[in-house]
Amino acid sequence: MATVSFDELRQLVEINSYTFNKDGVDTHGHLFSTWMQDLGFSEERYYRETIGDHLLFRSPVVTNKRRVLLLGHLDTVFPPGTFETFREDEEWVYGPGVCDMKGGNLIALQALRAIQHSAGGIANIDFLLVSDEEKGSDDSSSLTQSLALDYDICFDFEAAGSDHEVVIGRKGIGTYKFEIEGLAAHAGNHYADGIDANRIAAQILLELVSLTNLDDGTTVNPGKIEGGIGANTISPKAEITVELRFTKPSERDRVLKELEGIAKREWLPGSKLTYTGRLQRDVMEPTTTQSELLNEISEVLGYPLPTEKRGGVSDANTVATMGVATLDGFGPYGDGDHSVKERALKSSFQRRLNEVTQILGHVNQYANYLVPNTSHVSIKQMEASGN
User: Which domain, by its residues, includes 237?
Assistant: First the structure.
């Protein structure tokens, strides 16, 4: 069985790949390109001017067979000069991205190497690395959606759970902004002449908070509020940024309808309200095909993978909503992500590498790529016959 090398993780981690550090993200991507091309993958590069390029690595395609998409991201949340070092001790590795998600990308890479070595080649397994996941995948989400239509299975390499759970469900997320325009007036001499944007913001805030439904896993958080220009002036403007998270489409629809209703209401005569924002990622729900995939993996490994649902989001949401059987959390276990305490457990790398190598080895279609006239024969049948 393949053994994890942390030397390459050090190389990746010491490259600053903050989302808006295009040079750093692209340097990270070029390093990965070299490794993937050494494995015989072709590259499709989606050039971007202000963020890093998105990269899709393709293997040969066996028609009428399952196709698998591996999913990762190149960017981290750390601006240059804030957290750029790698270190390790006997139990842990430390550094930006060791669990989110340079460590997960490395597991995918090293598993592909092991399969290449044992099978002689890889087919029907592709690897997408986007550059803007940490900022909501605003640019890459449409690309991911369009590419997802070509695949039957997706494995995302975000961090594993504390007991090495894989993720079968994630909340959906949307971010919206209410911009309120009132009318400034002197608070002492002309109070009644003003239109108080802050007052409207306060009323809207209470409406937003009331939309939270913890029983259904729905949260509506007006997390940022700005308004006014001074205590002696009726506020001429105010702004609320609100995030909603939800676990099912019915709750998504309920909250979005309420937000639209708030935006259309006249709160004070003469005021103006502008409503903007977008649904960044829809909910990732457990599905029958996902359950079938988990059962298949249990047969391959000889034990079931533990599962969990998470409130956080990832690009797995995007692929899952396109009808692809999707599992997330195939990276190593770690904690402290998005902070200078980020770390990942060394033993977790080895466990995940072993599991991913077996799983991808099972779905690898290279044998059928070599022998097209046996394309109707399953991998299990070929193994049983000794081919």
Answer: 172-281
